[in-house]
Amino acid sequence: MARRNDRPDRVHHRPTGLGVALLALAGLALIFWWVTEVEVHLAIATAVLVAVVIDGVIAHRTIAPIRFDLRSPDEIPAGRESTWTALVEGWTRPITLRPLLSGPPVDLIVDHGRLGSLPWPPLRRGVVPFAAVDARANGPLGLVATGRRHHVVLPLPVHVTPEPVAADVRWPKPRAVAFGGAEGAPIGDDMFRSVRPYQFGDERRRVHWKATAHHGELMVRESDGLGVVRVRMIVDLGPPGPAGELVAGHAVWAAAAMLDRGWSVELVTLDASHEVPRLRTLGRAFGASPILEDPPLIPLPTLSAPVRSAKDARLRLACTANGSPMAGSGWQGATCRVTRDGIEWS
User: Fold this and answer.
1) Of 227, 245, 280, which residue sits at a domain end?
2) Is residue 241 situated within a structural domain?
3) What is the DSSP string of 245-279?
4) What value, to the nearest 5°, has the Cα angle with vertex 271 and ends 164 and 166?
5) What SS3 state is found at 13?
6) How many CB atoms lie within 10 A of CB 8?
7) In this structure, are residues 279 and 293 in contact, taking their beta carbons and an 8 Å threshold?
C-alpha cells in the first residue's frame, strides 16, 4: 500500500481550446471597443474574462484538495499491464488520473465514488519504489484545465519480474553430491554409506551383489538419507537490450523447472538490488516530464545465493543487472550458464 501524496507539485492552469478561442474573441472585442468606444464590445470582453476566471477558480478548487492512495501488487510481470487500486479523496467534480514513468500515458476518469481498479501501463524489469501521477480536471464551462502532479512513495518497492520464456534445453542427469535429512530437502538419490548382512524384511533391491560375492553371505546396502542434486545457475544478461531481457526470461523458466525437479538451485547474478531508481526532478502538470537520476557508474557485486521457490528466482532476477557475474571456484555440483547463446551445462 502506498503512502498518501508525497511532495505534490503545485496546481497549474492552462486554457482549453474553447478557452483560447473565447479569449481571442475577448481581445478582438477590446480592440473594437478601443476604436469605436461602443460599450457592448467592452461588455462582451468583460463577460468572457469573468467566465474564464470563474471557470479557472472552480477547476482549481477541484484539483487542489485531491488526495489519493495507491495500492500496488508486490510483483508485476515486465511488459504487461497490471492492476493497481487508487482510493481518491477530496474530489467534488470528475477528474482524470494519468500514470507517468511507464508506457504511453493512459487517462483514467474518476466521475463517481472512489476509483477502484486502476489499469497500470506496462513497466520494465526492475524495482519501482515510487509512482508519479497527474491529476487533471476542467472547469464546468470547459474553458480552463488544471493539473497537479503527485509523487507517491511506496512503502515496499514493487518488483517488476521477467516473464518466463521456455528454452530448448537438453536436461542432464546430474548426480547427487550431498545428502539432506532435513525436512524440505530436495529429492535426489539415496547416498550410499556401507554394507551389512542381510536381515529378514530387507528389500531385495538393496542387495549388494559384489559385496555378497566378496563376503560369501548375502549383503545389503545402507544409505544416508536423501541425496541432493545441486545446480549453480550463472545468469549473464550481457549488454542492455531486448536480448538481455530474453535471457532473464529463460533464466526464470529454467530455475522454476529445476526446482520442480527437486534440485537445489543457486543463482549467480550481478546484483543491483541496492540501485533503485531515484527521482531527479518531478516536473509539473502540462509541462516537463519527471526525470530519473542516472545510475552511478560503480562496479556491482556478484551475488551467489540459493533460491527456494520460483518466486524467489523471479524476485532475484528482477534485481539482476546487465553484465557478466564473476562465479567463484570450488563448486560441488552441476553448473549451467544462461546467456544469449542459450543454456549450457558443465
Assistant:
1) 227
2) yes
3) HHHHHHHHHHHHHHHHTT-EEEEEEEB-TT----E
4) 15
5) strand
6) 18
7) yes
CATH of the domain at 28: 2.60.40.10
Give the residue from 256, 243, 296 showing the smallest Cα distance to 274: 296
Q: Do residues 89 and 193 both lie within one domain?
A: no
The span from the CA of 238 to the CA of 9, in Å, is: 39
- Render pLDDT for 252-276 as a digit per residue (tens, 0 to 9): 999 999 998 888 899 999 999 888 8
Indicate whether 173 belongs to any domain. Answer: no
Angle, helix 17-36 to helix 39-63, in steps of 10 degrees: 150
Q: Which residues pair with 267 in a beta bridge?
A: 233, 305
Contact predicate 229/258, CB 8 Å: no
Domain extent at residue 296: 230-345
Phi and psi angles of residue 92, each rounded to the nearest 5 degrees, phi first = -120, -20
The predicted-structure confidence for 4-57, as pLDDT tens digits, reads as follows: 556 678 999 999 999 999 999 999 999 999 999 899 999 999 999 999 999 999
Tell me the three cell numbers of residue 41.
464590445
| Helix count and strand count (H, E) for the chain | 5, 19
Decide if 44 contacts 179 (C-beta within 8 A). Answer: no
Q: What is the pTM of this model?
A: 0.76
Query: Cα 59 to chain center, whole Å?
Result: 34
> Burial letters for 12-23: b for 16+ Cβ neighbours within 10 Å, e otherwise?
bbebbeebeebb
